[in-house]
Design goal:
Elements: H1 2-9, H2 14-47, E1 54-65, E2 68-79, E3 82-84, H3 86-91, E4 95-96, E5 99-100, H4 101-112, H5 117-127, H6 134-161, E6 173-184, H7 187-204, E7 215-224, E8 227-228, E9 240-244, H8 248-262, E10 270-275, H9 279-284, E11 290-293, H10 295-305, H11 309-320, H12 327-337, H13 342-354, H14 362-368, E12 380-381, H15 388-400, H16 409-424, H17 431-435, H18 443-481, H19 484-492
Parallel strand pairs: 6-10, 10-11
Antiparallel strand pairs: 1-2, 2-3, 4-5, 6-7, 7-9, 8-12
């Protein structure tokens, strides 16, 4: 081995030397893994219960790992007419298809941080001793995305059934922010959207634009406990991120399930929601949540509808000074101040409608209600909300909107969920956690089952007791019949009148 290395590295530049040594060590690692697996399989074969596990030969298996492909043989057994691999069951070989969990996790983390599946495949090739095609990476994203969505469905189902285990963490306040991004569609989804748009144009007698881009919205929802105290980065504490294409009702149910599993909800005194004013954001909020419009979107709408800088600045200042009751009147006066042209007036009406609600901050509303903001926990502070633009850029926009990208709906949905897990867990994606079962509370079902078993048991005992009583009464009747007095009475009466049968 040493002589081989000497021959390989002779007169090489360091960069090439590094690559060759890396590949050599990875190949050695694959060989070691192969030998370990086959030795373990041989041991299991000798120690197995031969009556229970019938040996049916060997089969070659291949696993793609971060060190390269590991090809090894393993014994096949038949148990209860089913094929069994004792090696897989014993050492828990976890794969997604032929890809090891370690490699799968690395691929997913790479996918989140690259601009495309092709670039991700190239990065994986450079960082490992394994070559993965971009189609394989896309298939992996879909498989993991399906698992995540299936787990979300279970959370919602168990929440409805009252089976989720309630969290115990106590927090005085919980903050929520939500927003969405629009992504370009491709393939069959683009064709369907185009047909729908064409029909809408015909129905409304509008001009059809064949070059119009077909888009759909990806939603992002973040729940957090506050801001890290004295942090220069306004770091959020304990983020819970939900992403994907879903209805407001589904988003609300999933959010409720996540909050229920994490917190003791009776401890939450204040819940506040910050968004751009979209109807789906307020629809998904709970009844006791204080809703406000995001400051960035308020300023953005003002900049869009008022072109004159002087009037824009004045209106923004009015809002900053919390003189909310003056906003509508100020915009109304602008209609005549700016000449009363229809185009200008229409824009100002749009601005009036947008600023009609959601201007007071959650602190203002608490003050109106005669309530105070509770004391934050240690190392946490409470601030003005408004982190959503940063979050949506980091979690979704960088990956799904940079360049001229287009997606199928399912593909974008699954990729967004993987991005959410990555950013919620500080750059970690654990397949084991994704595939783990949701803890559920079966205490009510067990209690009901116990009652049903007791009822069945009591019914059975009742039947036994009744039978014994009937047999006793019958026996007593036969004894009475044999007495001298009874014999005399029977002669005078019908025999069946006093018989116990």
């Amino acid at each position: 081995m040493r002589n081989e290395v000497k021959e390989e590295v002779k007169d090489e530049k360091f960069i090439e030397l590094e690559k060759k040594v890396f590949k050599l060590v990875c190949n050695l690692g694959c060989e070691i893994i192969k030998q370990v697996l086959e030795k373990q399989d041989e041991k299991l074969m000798k120690e197995r219960n031969k009556k229970e596990y019938r040996h049916k030969g060997y089969r070659i298996n291949t696993i793609k790992t971060i060190m390269g492909e590991v090809e090894y043989k393993r014994a096949i057994y038949i148990k209860d007419k089913k094929t069994v691999y004792l090696l897989d069951e014993t050492i828990k070989i976890e794969t997604i298809g032929k890809i090891s969990s370690n490699l799968a996790e690395m691929i997913l983390k790479t996918v989140v941080n690259t601009v495309s599946y092709r670039k991700g495949a190239n990065d994986v090739k450079n960082l490992t001793n394994e070559t993965i095609s971009h189609q394989t990476i896309q298939q992996l994203v879909w498989k993991i995305g399906e698992k995540i969505e299936a787990k979300e469905n279970e959370e919602i189902k168990f929440m409805k059934q009252g089976k989720l285990v309630q969290g115990t963490k106590q927090v005085p306040a919980l903050f929520e922010e939500a927003d969405g991004i629009w992504i370009n569609l491709q393939g069959k989804d683009r064709k369907e959207a185009k047909e729908k748009y064409k029909k809408q144009c015909e129905k409304k007698n509008q001009e059809y634009n064949p070059k119009r881009k077909m888009k759909t919205e990806l939603k992002l929802h973040i729940t957090y406990e506050g801001w890290k105290k004295d942090s220069t980065r306004s770091e959020l504490v304990n983020k819970t991120i939900i992403a994907g294409m879903m209805t407001p009702q589904r988003l609300g149910k999933l959010r409720n399930a996540r909050v229920y599993q994490k917190y003791d909800e009776t401890s939450i005194e204040v819940r506040a929601n910050n968004g751009d004013g979209a109807k789906w954001i307020s629809t998904s909020a709970t009844d006791d949540t204080i809703c406000q419009k995001d400051s960035f979107h308020i300023q953005q709408e003002i900049m869009r509808d008022i072109k004159e800088e002087k009037y824009r600045d004045e209106l923004i200042q009015i809002i900053k000074e919390k003189r909310y009751n003056e906003v509508q009147g100020y915009i109304e006066n602008l209609k005549s101040e700016l000449g009363g042209e229809k185009k200008v007036v229409d824009k100002l009406k749009t601005l009036q409608s947008y600023l009609k609600t959601g201007l007071p901050r959650y602190q203002d509303i608490l003050e109106e209600q005669g309530r105070k903001m509770p004391e934050p926990p240690k190392d946490i502070e409470y601030k003005d909300m408004g982190t959503m633009e940063s979050q949506i850029f980091t979690v979704l926009k960088v990956r799904l909107c940079s360049g001229r990208k287009a997606f199928l709906k399912l593909g974008a949905n699954y990729l967004s969920k993987i991005c959410a897990i990555y950013h919620e867990n500080n750059g970690e994606i654990k397949i084991e956690k994704i595939e783990s079962n949701i803890p559920i509370d079966n205490s009510i079902e067990e209690w009901i089952k116990e009652i049903e078993e007791n009822v069945k048991k009591n019914r059975k005992m009742h039947r036994v007791d009744r039978k014994e009583l009937e047999e006793y009464n019958y026996a007593q009747g036969r004894v009475i019949e044999k007495t001298e007095e009874m014999k005399k009475i029977i002669k005078l009466l019908e025999p069946t009148a006093l018989m116990y049968r």
